[in-house]
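Quarterly update from the structural biology core.
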Amino acid sequence: MKTKKMKVVALALALVLMMGVLATGCSSGSKEENTLTIGGKKFTEQVILVNILEQLIENRTDIDVINQADLGATDVLQQGMLDKDLDMYVEYTGTAYMIVLKEELDTTDPQIIYDRVKDYYQKEFDMTWMTPFGFNNTYCIAVKSEDATKYGLEKISDLKGHSEEMILGSDFDFLEREDGADYFNKAYGLTWKDLRGMDPGLMYSAVKENQIEAIVAYATDGRIPRYELKVLEDDLAFFPPYFASAVINNDALEKFPEVSDLMEELAPHLTMEKMQELNSLVDIDGMPEGTVAKDFLTESGLI
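Predicted structure, tokenized:
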């Protein structure tokens, strides 16, 4: 009799444990079903953008966001999207066009580049490029405003006759790329006193402190206005457009269609001037990216 009772109790305990496991499994599955993983590249602007997307989506929807900012370069993020380890990230049209599509630049028309990239990602990767943000983080040539005034520099072509006495600072990537420094100098017919590869952060300090005369800058970098640098007009339209846009896997978009509407609402608020400001708050003032993102969303009336 005692043995029978023990068997009944053991069976009951087993059923309770099984119910607990099933309940836990269902709870976990439910959370996973409601989760969106957003990745980002390893520089300030991208970390800010991932935080903006995370806070906007979590504040305005019931979606749980996993923040994977500062993850890696384009190839890392693209593979993560293909493997479905990531659901979404922010990419730049010029980067996608030349690095992912591996196309030669036969136009610098922003809309044409965007349309080609969007169509390719849709057909080949089952991914959607959403409404592009309102800033173009392209390469640009920047000099000190006082030097621009002194030498009458308004556009890059104006550097002819002056570049021979100037040092150009650039990140190492631009110096090594096939479509980088050599191609740029040939297109504009420029010869420099020296080409100097530098850490991006050091370039701006170097030109500010007169250690070099010109830099290959990033158009949305907040140090451009803070350090009173002048961006010279790319009068030959050499640099491709690098408009940013959130890219999402179609299965995630089908699951969370409201994300598309949020990106369309967000896009006009992220202007060139605003992105420079946000970048400068982190790079110069030392504010945390999450705080900068929250303040921006609040001030813009998005949350």
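The two ends are 66 Å apart (CA to CA).
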